[in-house]
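Structure first, sequence second, as always.
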């Protein structure tokens, strides 16, 4: 049973900070400093946080502590799980939990019948109980059960893992790498997996129209996990000018937290600035975000009046770079506004600089100010889209009988939508009219079918609200049409994507009909000689564009494959309205470099835009060839 408190009482904060330098054979240099600095930052901006610190310094054997009190602060499996258990039983619903691990990770060998049979389970490498057993594993499944039970108790959890899980690909000659090879004997000697009271870990219950069963993700809407790098990358320690060491993720995260002097920014805002920081410091790894990006980092999230923003990188030549490009349907001539961020700024917060895109690559764009004023020095920026020329490819026709037609033209023009007033102007995407009998606005698709949308009575909605709906539908169509006709043939033929269900394999372009609650499998095979990055989106029947994975992307190594399960369901609100079928498009985007497509994400059309929804973007090595492809599976799901 979860603890509860009065709504008038402010939520508490609980932190478990784990840092291990003192491994017997593969010691690190910056893990303890990571958690000490994180602890100091938390205490500087938040009073009354309940903090447990478990560390093992490099040097003398950590097992030679004479006092039991000292032994209780070692990062052993028993102490770590005791700390988790303390949080679980002392915290109340609505409290915030922050878990930070800096140390070695590895990846367990895949076993038959395991829920992660393709890559094996991630493992945190903790201290063992004595010198004869110097290390012990906390397996991913056990970690998942703790997270699940915390979430089930109503706690808001953030998990940061500054380590990597590359397993056997770790380079033994590089002591700055935060992973070690998997050891079967250590695994056998480690405590068994913890069984959760929450059956969701075993059953992985599904609540979305198209939901993805990832390795051990119970409900990614209810927590956030931030990992130092992808599964095939190496998390490194950085050597500072003063000779000290830090984990790359912990160091960059600390810079962001110090800039804000707060712990309550949205995760997506923090993540985008992490990406920009990694690029600024030329860190080769790419951190990964999984979970509810609208969640506050370690407290109630701030409301950001700017809405969606993008990271900005100073190129040092009088221009700036934003991490979206042709693959995101950004074109030369598009406009973005710049807003200062962070404490170091030479201009007032309300100052806005309007910029335009002057050149693009597949994944990035260069922007310059419209006026020849340049950019103030020592200012950190974030960008917000102002105009998108790509939306003009989807004209909207206004019925001649609409009242105040000039107002409609002006409202849609502000949204950079092309307006048609006559039938003979060519094909249109949407047709807006007013049903004078019922007094409702109606929107028809290009085949002249009335679209099933939230009711918009003439007397209750204004021009702006209806124009927002038209803009949303245009953006949805833009994503639906997203494809790359100019992708190199070598890249096109380097992978295979297939959807299977009940031993039936569906090829691309097939219209797939499935029963409600059917479990299908999405299979991806990388036949090429380079790793690729796979994004899986659902374009749903409520005109939403959502990342099914609730994270960044999957990395698929060369000559490897990936399989992920999807459960197709008719949404509950459809059935409540007497609609017993729905149509979704599962869009799979494959890229040659890390990037993000959250710039294209949309909520359901009847949901208000969430404040602070930001883009999470990263890019690999500068001159690497930029290639991408998008493929679709149209799925009709019905109860019969």
């Amino acid at each position: 049973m979860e603890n509860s408190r009065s709504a008038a009482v402010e939520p508490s904060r609980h932190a478990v900070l784990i840092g291990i330098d003192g491994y017997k054979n593969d010691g690190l240099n910056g893990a303890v400093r990571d958690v000490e600095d994180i602890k100091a930052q938390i205490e500087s901006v938040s009073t009354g946080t309940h903090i447990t610190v478990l560390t093992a310094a490099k040097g003398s054997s950590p097992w030679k502590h004479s006092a039991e009190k000292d032994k209780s602060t070692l990062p052993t499996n028993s102490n770590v799980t005791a700390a988790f258990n303390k949080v679980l039983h002392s915290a109340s619903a609505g409290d915030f939990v922050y878990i930070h691990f800096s140390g070695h990770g590895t990846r367990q060998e895949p076993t038959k019948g395991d829920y992660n049979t393709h890559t094996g389970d991630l493992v945190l490498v903790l201290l063992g109980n004595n010198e004869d057993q110097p290390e012990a594993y906390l397996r991913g499944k056990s970690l998942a059960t703790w997270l699940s039970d915390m979430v089930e108790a109503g706690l808001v959890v953030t998990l940061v893992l500054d380590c990597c899980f590359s397993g056997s690909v770790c380079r033994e000659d590089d002591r700055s790498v935060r992973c070690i090879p998997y050891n079967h004997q250590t695994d056998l000697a480690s405590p068994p997996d913890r069984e959760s009271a929450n059956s969701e870990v075993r059953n992985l219950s599904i609540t979305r129209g198209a939901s993805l069963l990832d390795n051990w993700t119970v409900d990614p809407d209810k927590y956030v996990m931030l990992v130092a790098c992808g599964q095939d990358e190496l998390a490194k320690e950085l050597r500072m000018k003063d000779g000290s060491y830090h984990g790359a993720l912990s160091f960059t995260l600390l810079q962001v937290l110090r800039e804000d002097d707060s712990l309550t920014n949205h995760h997506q805002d923090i993540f985008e600035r992490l990406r920009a920081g990694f690029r600024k410091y030329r860190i080769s790894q790419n951190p990964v975000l999984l979970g509810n990006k609208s969640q506050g980092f370690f407290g109630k999230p701030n409301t950001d009046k700017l809405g969606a923003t993008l990271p900005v990188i100073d190129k040092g030549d009088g221009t700036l770079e934003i991490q979206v490009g042709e693959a995101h349907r950004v074109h030369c001539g598009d406009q973005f506004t710049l807003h200062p961020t962070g404490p170091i700024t030479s201009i007032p917060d309300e100052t806005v600089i309007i910029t335009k895109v002057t050149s693009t690559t597949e994944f990035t764009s260069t922007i310059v100010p419209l006026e020849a004023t340049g950019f103030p020095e020592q200012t950190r920026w974030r960008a917000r889209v102002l105009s998108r020329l790509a939306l003009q490819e989807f004209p909207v026709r206004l019925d001649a009988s609409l009242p105040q037609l000039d107002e409609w033209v002006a409202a849609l023009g502000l949204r950079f939508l092309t307006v048609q007033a006559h039938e003979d102007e060519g094909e249109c995407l949407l047709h807006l009219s007013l049903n004078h009998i019922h007094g409702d606005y109606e929107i028809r698709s290009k085949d002249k079918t009335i679209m099933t949308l939230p009711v918009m009575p003439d007397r209750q909605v204004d021009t702006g609200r209806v124009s927002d709906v038209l803009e949303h539908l245009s953006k949805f169509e833009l994503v639906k049409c997203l494809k790359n006709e100019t992708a190199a043939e070598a890249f096109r033929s380097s992978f295979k994507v297939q959807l299977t269900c009940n031993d039936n394999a569906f090829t691309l372009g097939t219209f797939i009909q499935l029963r409600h609650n059917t479990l299908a499998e999405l299979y991806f095979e990388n036949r090429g000689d380079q790793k690729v990055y796979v994004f899986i989106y659902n374009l749903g029947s409520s005109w939403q564009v959502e990342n099914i994975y609730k994270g960044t992307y999957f990395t698929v190594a060369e000559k490897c494959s990936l399989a992920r399960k999807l459960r197709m369901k008719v949404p509950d609100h459809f059935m409540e309205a007497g609609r017993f079928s729905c149509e979704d498009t599962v869009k799979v985007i494959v890229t040659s470099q890390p990037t993000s497509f959250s710039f294209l994400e949309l909520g359901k059309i009847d949901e208000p835009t969430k404040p602070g929804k930001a883009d999470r973007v990263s890019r690999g090595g500068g001159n690497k060839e930029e290639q991408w492809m998008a493929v679709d599976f149209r799925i009709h799901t019905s109860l019969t």
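Margin note: The chain has a mean pLDDT of 83.
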